[in-house]
Amino acid sequence: MLRIAVPNKGSLSEPSAAMLHEAGYRQRKDRRELVLIDADNQVEFFYLRPRDIAVYVGSGRLDIGITGRDLLLDSGARAEEIMRLGFAASTLRYAARPGTVTDVSEFGGLTVATSFAGVVAKHLADNAVEASVVHLDGAVETAIQLGVAEVIADVVETGTTLRNAGLEIIGSPILESEAVVIRRPGDTAQETKVQQFLRRLQGVLVARRYVMMDYDISAELVDKAVALTPGLESPTVSPLHDKGWVAVRSMVPVQDAQRIMDELYDLGARAILTTGIHAARL
Ligand SMILES: Nc1ncnc2c1ncn2[C@@H]1O[C@H](COP(=O)(O)OP(=O)(O)OP(=O)(O)O)[C@@H](O)[C@H]1O
Ligand SMILES: O=P(O)(O)OC[C@H]1O[C@H](OP(=O)(O)OP(=O)(O)O)[C@H](O)[C@@H]1O
Ligand SMILES: [Mg+2]
User: Fold this and answer.
1) Distance CA 21, CA 278 (A)
2) Residue among 156, 131, 277, 96 at smallest CA distance from 122
3) Is the pLDDT reported for residue 242 higher than 90?
4) pLDDT single digits (tens) 49-107
5) How much is the pTM?
6) From the CA of 282, how far away is ligand 3's center (Å)?
7) Residue limits of the ATP phosphoribosyltransferase catalytic domain (predicted)?
8) Mutate to test the pocket of ligand 1, among 9, 11, 160 (most ligand atoms within 8 A of CB)
9) If you take atom 19 of ligand 2, which residue's CA is the nearest one?
């Protein structure tokens, strides 16, 4: 049985469950379920607080987990990132009231409030800045208004929360985060099952990012057409009954599909169809 930690709350929770469901795993129907066994797939899911997941995986109690890169780094746990999942993308950034401080080098003697005290203390030390760090659980933006800190370091996605709090970003990102799969370094006990799990998630990412494109084109133009649709490896080209024409089948990034269809049409391709990919193993 592969033992997997899944976020039970917050920004990571719903997209993690959706991805696991798309990968063919059973998921809990009730948020009060804490553990779920998917016997068919030989997997046991533990629904845990996102912040705690790296600790469980790092301690070796669970084989792998889904968490945020920022939470993994902040935990200091002995776990490493083995796959990027693309969702819950954010940056950790410093912010302050406009006109107060403009660069990290000016933080000396100030107080920085954050939920990521480990990452921030290290970042300040790396920049040779002596500032105090105050750990808060959330709603960090309000710490400046309430006089707890002059600077905050918090998760920024759209920047709306910062703007609403009358704060502005200072300097470049402390780190760029997204949801990741983590594992204890050197833990090869469940290697085959872990690799199969990762292939399933990879399949979901591919199914979400690509569509299958089919079209007919005259044989003399096939090289030009294939240059527009190179696929992941090599497109399939099959003969058509109508001599001089071929059918081409290739995977295309979903975001480029309409533009490529226009370009193929202009080139002379016809019967251009795209279909969704339900699941994939590359
Ligand atoms: N607005 C957001 N957009 C994208 N990612 C986010 C956002 N807020 C938090 N995250 C990411 O989600 C992960 C989990 O963060 P956290 O545990 O604080 O959950 P949360 O979504 O903020 O919920 P809560 O604070 O209510 O528990 C972190 O990796 C963080 O970078
Ligand atoms: O840049 P934005 O798009 O505004 O998103 C960033 C905000 O989202 C998260 O807050 P959350 O709602 O999780 O509240 P929290 O501070 O209590 O964690 C994060 O802590 C920021 O406050
Ligand atoms: Mg939060």
Assistant:
1) 12
2) 131
3) no
4) 999 999 999 999 999 999 999 999 999 999 999 999 999 999 999 999 999 999 999 99
5) 0.93
6) 35
7) 49-203
8) 11
9) 155
Q: What is the pLDDT of residues 141-162, one digit of tens each?
A: 999 999 999 999 999 999 999 9
> Each residue of 8-38: pLDDT tens digit?
999 999 999 999 999 999 999 999 999 999 9
Query: For ligand 1, atom 11, which residue shows the shortest CA distance?
Result: 88
User: Average per-residue pLDDT in the chain?
Assistant: 96
Give the model's pLDDT for residue 243: 85
The CATH code for residues 2-87+179-189 is 3.40.190.10
Nearest bound ligand to CA 177? 1
| Whole-complex ipTM | 0.94
- Ligand 1 atom closest to the Cα of residue 71 is 29
Cα–Cα dist 5/67, whole Å = 8
Residue 65 near ligand 1, beta carbon < 6 Å? no
Closest residue by Cα to atom 5, ligand 1, is 88
Which atom in ligand 2 lies closest to the alpha carbon of residue 163?
Answer: 4
Q: Does 159 contact ligand 2 (Cβ within 6 A)?
A: yes
The three-state (H, E, C) secondary structure of 16-30, written as one string: HHHHHHHCCCCCCCC
Say yes or no to pLDDT of 119 above 90. Answer: yes
Q: Read off the amino acid at residue 77.
A: A
Ligand 1 within 6 A of CB of 71: yes
**Nearest ligand (C-alpha, residue 68):** 1
Structural domain boundaries in the chain: 2-87+179-189, 90-177, 211-276
Say if CB 138 and CB 115 are below 8 A apart.
Answer: yes
Pick the CATH number of 211-276 from 3.90.1070.10, 3.30.70.120, 3.30.750.24, 3.40.50.800: 3.30.70.120
